Amino acid sequence: MPYISNKTNIDLYQEYKESRKGITDYKIANMLCLDYAREENINEIIKDLNEVLKELKKRFVYESLKKEDLLEIKLTKRQEQIALLRQKYTCTEVANILGIPPSTVFITYNVVLNKVLRYKEKIKEKIPPVLSKQQIDIYFLYIQGSKNAQIAEQLNISVDTVKTQLKRIKKKMNTGNKSI
Question: Which range of residues forms the domain containing residue 14?
Answer without folding.
Answer: 8-64
